[in-house]
Q: What sequence folds into this?
C-alpha cells in the first residue's frame, strides 16, 4: 500500500501556508489578551496590554506575506476583493482581514494618541511623523483622553468577535474541505480559535520575559502569574478539543480511520504524537499546573511559565504543520502517502519562513523606539560587582 | 439656495426604481429569449464522459495524446491510467503508468487473481467543488457543463487543488495557475472529439452530449450499469464508469 494520485506527489500548500495560520493565530491571541484588560477590566494585565495590542498589529501586518509569496500570481491578489466569488470561503479573506486591520490600527491610534502627541513636540523628522500621525491635532486634555478611552473600550469589545472570526475563518478554510479527511471537521475552526489564543498568550509571555531581561526591567509578578493561569486554561481547552477530534475519528471507524491512523502512527508520529502532544502539550500542562496550584519561589515560577510559553509556541506551530502538511500527505486515493520537506533556500523554503517570522519582532522594536510599549516598566536596581 | 432643476432624493429613488425593471429587461430578456449565442429553439449540449473499464488495455495512448494536445507540464497529469492487481489474499496493488505506459514484467506477478486498468480524469462535476472554492471565480463551469479555468484570472492559490476529491488538479509550474482536463474544450466546440477519446484504440473512453438522446454516450448509458467515483462527496460527477470494481476510489 502506497499509491498516491500522480498530481499529489507535489505538495501544493507549503510551509508558507503553515506560517499563515500561525501568524494570524498570534494576532488573534495577542488581541484577546489586550481586550481582557481593555474590556474585561483585568487590571493585572495592564503592564502588557499595550504591548499585546502592538504585537497584534505588527503580526497582522505580516500575516499576508507568506500568502503573497505562496500565490502563483501575487499581482492578482486583489482579484479576491475586486471579483470575489462568494461561494468560496477564501473570498472573504480580504474583507475579514481588511476590517480587522482597520479596527486594530484604529484602536492602537486611540490608545497611543497621547504618546504620539508627546513625541510630536519639538523638531525633527520623528516629531513631524508623529504630528502627521495624529492628523496635526495635538489636543491632549483629560476630556480627550476620556473620549479616547471610551472609543478604545468599544473597539476592543468589537475586536473580540472579529478576532475569533479572523482565526475561526482560517480554521474553516481547512475544516470545510470535504475531500480531505484529516481536515474535514466542524471542530476545526474552534480548535483554531483556542490554539490561536494559546499561541498569542505564549508569545506575549515569551517576549515580555526576554525584553525585561535585556532591559533589566522588574517583572510584574501579578501580570505574569495571571497570564500563566490564562495560558493553562486555554491550552487545556485547545488540547482537549484536539483529543476529542481524535477520539471521534477513532471511535466512528469511518473509511478514513485506517488511513488516518496510519498517518498518525507513521508519517506524523514524531511531529504529532511525540512533539506536539507529549513534549509540547503534556509538559507545559504539568508545569503551568504546578505554578497555578502551588506556591513556588518567584524565580522558579517565572522559569516554569517562560518554559511553558516557549513549548506552547512550538506546540501551536507543530499543530499548524501537522494540520496543513499532514492533511496533504494523505492521498485522496486513501491508499498511500506522499512526502514533504521544505527546501532550505527555496522561495517557499525554511529561510524565507524564518525571515518572515523574524520581521514582526524587528518592527516591534522600531515601534517601541517610537512609543514605549511598556510605559510602566520599572528598572531593577543596579547590582554592583562584589556586592 | 437649491437650483430649480435639482431633483429631490425622493424623486431620484423613484426614477431609479422605475429604471431598474427596464435595465433588467434590456439585459436579461434577450439572453432568456434567445439563449445568448444560441439559435432560437436550439438546446445547449451538456457534455459528459464515460469509461468502459472492461475495454481498457492500459496502452496509455490517451495519456500521450493528452500530453501532446494540451502541452501538459512534465510531472503533472490531466489524465492517467491506474493499474489494479488483486492478489489471492485480497491485497490490492495499485500503480500508475509512466508517460510511456506500464512496464510489464516478462513473468507475471505471483498469485495475481484479478487485474484491470482504470483511466482517470477530471469528473466535470455538476456541483464542482473546485469551482465553488475558487475565491476569484477563475474556476467555472461552461454552459456545456465543462469545468474550466480562466488562466488570466486565476491567482494560483491552490485551493481548488485541495478541494478536488479526485486529485485531478495541479498548479501548472509554467503558468503558475491551476491546470486540469478541459475535455479538450478547444476541440469539442468545433465538433471534434477530445484527444484521449480519439486516441483510445479500444473505445474505452467515450464522450458525448447528455441532452441528445441519440448521442453515442446517451445510448451507452441507457444500455449499461454504471457508477461514478466518490458519490458520497455530493459532487455529482459527469464521468461515468462501467464495470468498475469496488477497489477503485
A:
Amino acid at each position: 500500500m502506497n499509491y498516491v494520485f500522480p498530481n499529489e506527489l507535489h505538495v501544493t500548500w507549503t510551509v508558507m501556508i503553515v506560517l499563515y495560520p500561525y501568524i494570524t493565530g498570534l494576532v488573534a491571541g495577542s488581541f484577546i489578551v489586550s481586550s481582557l484588560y481593555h474590556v474585561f477590566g483585568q487590571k493585572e494585565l495592564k503592564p502588557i496590554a499595550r504591548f499585546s495590542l502592538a504585537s497584534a498589529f505588527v503580526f497582522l501586518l505580516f500575516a499576508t506575506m507568506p500568502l503573497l509569496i505562496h500565490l502563483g500570481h501575487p499581482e492578482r491578489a486583489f482579484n479576491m476583493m475586486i471579483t470575489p466569488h462568494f461561494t468560496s470561503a477564501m473570498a472573504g479573506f480580504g474583507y475579514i482581514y481588511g476590517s480587522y486591520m482597520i479596527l486594530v490600527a484604529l484602536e492602537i491610534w486611540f490608545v497611543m494618541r497621547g504618546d504620539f502627541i508627546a513625541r510630536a513636540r519639538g523638531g525633527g523628522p520623528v516629531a513631524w511623523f508623529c504630528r502627521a500621525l495624529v492628523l496635526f491635532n495635538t489636543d491632549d486634555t483629560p476630556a480627550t483622553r476620556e473620549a479616547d478611552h471610551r472609543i478604545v473600550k468599544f473597539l476592543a469589545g468589537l475586536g473580540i468577535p472579529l478576532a475569533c472570526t479572523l482565526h475561526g475563518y482560517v480554521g474553516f478554510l481547512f475544516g470545510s474541505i470535504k475531500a480531505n479527511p484529516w481536515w474535514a471537521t466542524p471542530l476545526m475552526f474552534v480548535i483554531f480559535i483556542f490554539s490561536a489564543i494559546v499561541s498569542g498568550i505564549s508569545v506575549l509571555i515569551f517576549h515580555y520575559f526576554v525584553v525585561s531581561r535585556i532591559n533589566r526591567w522588574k517583572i510584574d509578578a501579578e501580570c505574569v502569574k495571571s497570564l500563566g493561569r490564562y495560558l493553562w486554561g486555554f491550552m487545556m481547552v485547545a488540547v482537549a478539543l484536539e483529543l476529542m477530534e481524535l477520539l471521534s475519528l477513532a471511535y466512528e471507524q469511518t473509511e478514513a480511520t485506517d488511513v488516518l491512523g496510519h498517518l498518525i502512527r507513521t508519517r506524523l508520529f514524531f511531529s504529532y504524537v511525540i512533539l506536539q502532544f507529549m513534549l509540547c502539550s503534556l509538559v507545559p500542562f504539568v508545569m503551568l499546573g504546578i505554578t497555578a496550584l502551588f506556591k513556588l519561589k518567584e524565580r522558579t515560577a517565572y522559569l516554569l511559565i517562560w518554559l511553558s510559553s516557549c513549548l506552547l509556541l512550538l506546540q501551536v506551530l507543530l499543530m499548524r504543520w501537522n494540520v496543513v502538511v499532514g492533511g496533504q500527505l494523505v492521498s485522496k486515493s486513501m491508499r498511500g502517502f506522499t512526502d514533504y520537506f521544505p527546501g532550505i533556500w527555496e522561495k517557499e523554503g525554511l529561510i524565507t519562513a524564518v525571515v518572515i517570522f523574524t520581521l514582526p519582532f524587528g518592527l516591534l522594536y522600531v515601534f517601541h523606539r517610537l512609543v514605549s510599549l511598556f510605559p510602566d516598566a520599572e528598572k531593577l536596581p543596579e547590582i554592583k560587582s562584589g556586592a | 439656495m437649491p437650483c430649480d432643476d435639482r431633483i429631490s432624493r425622493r424623486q431620484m429613488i423613484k426614477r431609479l426604481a422605475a429604471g431598474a425593471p427596464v435595465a433588467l429587461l434590456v439585459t436579461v430578456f434577450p439572453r432568456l429569449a434567445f439563449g445568448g449565442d444560441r439559435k432560437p429553439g436550439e438546446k445547449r449540449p451538456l457534455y459528459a464522459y464515460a469509461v468502459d473499464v472492461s475495454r481498457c488495455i492500459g496502452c496509455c495512448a490517451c495519456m500521450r495524446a493528452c500530453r501532446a494536445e494540451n502541452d501538459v507540464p512534465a510531472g503533472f497529469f490531466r489524465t492517467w491510467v491506474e493499474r489494479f492487481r488483486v492478489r489471492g489474499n485480497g491485497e490490492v496493488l495499485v500503480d500508475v503508468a509512466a508517460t510511456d505506459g506500464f512496464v510489464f514484467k516478462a513473468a507475471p506477478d505471483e498469485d495475481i487473481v484479478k487485474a484491470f486498468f482504470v483511466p482517470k480524469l477530471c469528473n466535470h462535476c455538476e456541483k464542482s467543488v473546485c469551482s465553488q472554492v475558487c475565491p476569484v471565480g477563475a474556476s467555472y463551469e461552461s454552459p456545456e457543463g465543462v469545468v474550466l479555468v480562466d488562466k488570466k484570472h486565476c491567482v494560483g492559490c491552490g485551493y481548488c487543488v485541495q478541494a478536488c476529491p479526485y486529485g485531478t488538479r495541479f498548479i501548472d509550474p509554467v503558468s503558475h495557475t491551476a491546470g486540469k482536463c478541459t475535455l479538450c474544450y478547444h476541440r469539442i466546440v468545433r465538433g471534434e472529439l477530445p484527444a484521449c477519446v480519439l486516441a483510445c484504440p479500444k473505445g474505452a473512453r467515450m464522450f458525448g452530449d447528455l441532452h441528445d438522446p441519440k448521442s453515442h454516450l446517451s445510448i451507452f448509458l441507457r444500455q449499461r450499469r454504471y457508477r461514478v467515483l466518490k458519490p458520497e462527496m455530493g459532487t455529482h460527477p459527469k464521468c461515468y464508469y462501467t464495470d468498475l470494481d469496488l477497489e477503485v476510489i
